[in-house]
Design brief:
Pfam families: Epimerase
CATH superfamily of the largest domain: NAD(P)-binding Rossmann-like Domain
GO biological process, one term: galactose catabolic process via UDP-galactose, Leloir pathway
Distance between the termini: 59 Å
Protein name: UDP-glucose 4-epimerase
Strand content: 15-25%
Structural class: alpha/beta
Subunit structure: Homodimer.
Pathway: Carbohydrate metabolism; galactose metabolism
Radius of gyration: 19 Å
Bound molecules: galactose-uridine-5'-diphosphate
C-alpha cells in the first residue's frame, strides 16, 4: 500500500506540482484545500477533501482516515502586496490556520511536516547570495507571517516532538512539461505569467515595475526556480524527515539571478513575439536583488536543480499559457489600438 501524505493547498500552483512529484515517488497525496484560490482540476493524483486547515477536527479526521504519515503544508495567502493592504488576512490564514493544522496533527499523532516558507523572510538583505544564516528582517506581513510559522514549528518541536523542514522558496515559476498544471491566479501579479498574458491579449496593463534599481540594466533581479525542482525538493525533505531528521530550513533557488529585462528578452526569444516593455513605477515592498545560496540544500538534502535553466522555465510556461489562454486570445496589436 502507498504511504499517504496530507497536502494542504494541494489544489494550488506549487502544491499540485508537489502532488504530482509525490505520486511519481510512490506516495499517495491526500489534498486538503478550501478552494478559495485552488483549482479542483489540479487534484489528479489522490483524494481531495474540501475544508480549512484551521479546522483541527477535520485535519485530525483526514489524517486518521487516510493513515497519513506526514504533511506538506502549502495552504496560505501568498501575495506580498495584498499582505501590506490586508495584514489581518495573512496573519489569520498563515499563522492562525497553521496553528489549527498543527493541533490536528497532534491529535492524530502525525509528527512530520514540510513547510512552504519563503525568501521574503529575509526582507531586503543586500546584493550578495542569501544563505540560511542571513539576518531575517521581513518587510511585508506575508514574510512576517511565514517567519512566525517557522518559529512556531521550532517551538512545537521542543514542546511536542514535531519534526519539520522549512523550505524557503525564491521565485517559483514554470509549468509541468505536459502542460497539465501551471500558474493560474486571479488576479495574477507575477512577472512571467503577466508577461505571457499580455502577449496573449489577456491583460492590457503590463509594465516593468521599476527601471531605476541599482542593477546593471536598472531592473530588479530575482532567482527563478522551476516549480518541478521545488516539488522534488519537497519529496527529498519528506524523505529526510522519515530518515530521522528533526529540524531544518533550506533556501531553494537556482543560485542565479536574472533581471526583469533578461526574463522578458528570453520570453521574446522563446515565443518569437515582441514584448512592449513599458516602464512603470517600482512596486512597493520589492527589494532590488534576491538570489539564493543553495549550498545547504545541496549538502543536506542532496537537492540540485534540473529544470531551472531560464529557457526551460519559459518554454514550459509558454506551453501552459497557450493551453490555458491561447484559444481565447486576442492579438496584442488589436488591444493596443
Ligand atoms: O507585471 C509585473 C510583475 C512583476 N514585475 C517584477 O518582476 C519581479 C518578480 O516579481 P514577481 O511578482 O513575479 O515575484 P516576486 O519576486 O514579487 O515574488 C516572489 O518573492 C516574494 C518575496 O519577495 C514572495 O515570496 C512571492 O510569493 C514570490 O512569488 C519583481 O521585480 C517585480 O517587480 C514586473 O516588473 N511586472
Amino acid at each position: 500500500m502507498k504511504t499517504a501524505i496530507l497536502v494542504t493547498g494541494g489544489a494550488g500552483y506549487v502544491g499540485s506540482h508537489a502532488c504530482k512529484a509525490l505520486a511519481a515517488a510512490g506516495y499517495l497525496p491526500v489534498v486538503l484545500d478550501n478552494f478559495s484560490t485552488g483549482h479542483a482540476d489540479f487534484v489528479r493524483w489522490g483524494p481531495q477533501v474540501k475544508g480549512d486547515i484551521a479546522d483541527s477536527a477535520l485535519v485530525a479526521e483526514t489524517i486518521t482516515r487516510h493513515g497519513c504519515a506526514g504533511v506538506m503544508h502549502f495552504a496560505a495567502a501568498s501575495l506580498v502586496g495584498e499582505s501590506v493592504s490586508n495584514p489581518g488576512l495573512y496573519y489569520a490564514n498563515n499563522v492562525g490556520g497553521t496553528l489549527g493544522l498543527l493541533e490536528g496533527m497532534r491529535q492524530a499523532g502525525c509528527r512530520s511536516i514540510v513547510f512552504s516558507s519563503t525568501c521574503a523572510i529575509y526582507g531586503d538583505p543586500g546584493t550578495g547570495p542569501i544563505t540560511e544564516a542571513t539576518a531575517q528582517a521581513p518587510i511585508s506581513p506575508y514574510g512576517a507571517s511565514k517567519q512566525m510559522v517557522e518559529r512556531v514549528l521550532r517551538d512545537f518541536h521542543t514542546a511536542h516532538g514535531l519534526n519539520s523542514i522549512c523550505l524557503r522558496y525564491f521565485n517559483a515559476c514554470g509549468a509541468s512539461e505536459d502542460a497539465e498544471i501551471g500558474e493560474m491566479r486571479d488576479p495574477e501579479t507575477h512577472l512571467i505569467p503577466r508577461a505571457m498574458m499580455s502577449l496573449l491579449g489577456r491583460i492590457r496593463d503590463f509594465a516593468v515595475h521599476g527601471s531605476d534599481y541599482p542593477t546593471a540594466d536598472g531592473t530588479a533581479i530575482r532567482d527563478y526556480i522551476h516549480v518541478r525542482d521545488l516539488a522534488q525538493a519537497h519529496v527529498l525533505a519528506l524523505g529526510a524527515l522519515f530518515g530521522g531528521k528533526k529540524l531544518g530550513a533550506y533556501n531553494l533557488g537556482s543560485g542565479r539571478g536574472a533581471s526583469v529585462l533578461e526574463v522578458l528578452n528570453e520570453i521574446e526569444r522563446v515565443t518569437g513575439r515582441p514584448m512592449a516593455k513599458v516602464s512603470g513605477a517600482r512596486r512597493a515592498g520589492d527589494p532590488p536583488v534576491l538570489v539564493a545560496d543553495g549550498a545547504l540544500a545541496r549538502q543536506e538534502l542532496g537537492f540540485t536543480t534540473r529544470h531551472s535553466a531560464m529557457s526551460r522555465i519559459i518554454e514550459s510556461s509558454w506551453r501552459w499559457h497557450l493551453k490555458a489562454h491561447g484559444a481565447a486570445a486576442a492579438p496584442q496589436a488589436a488591444l493596443a489600438a
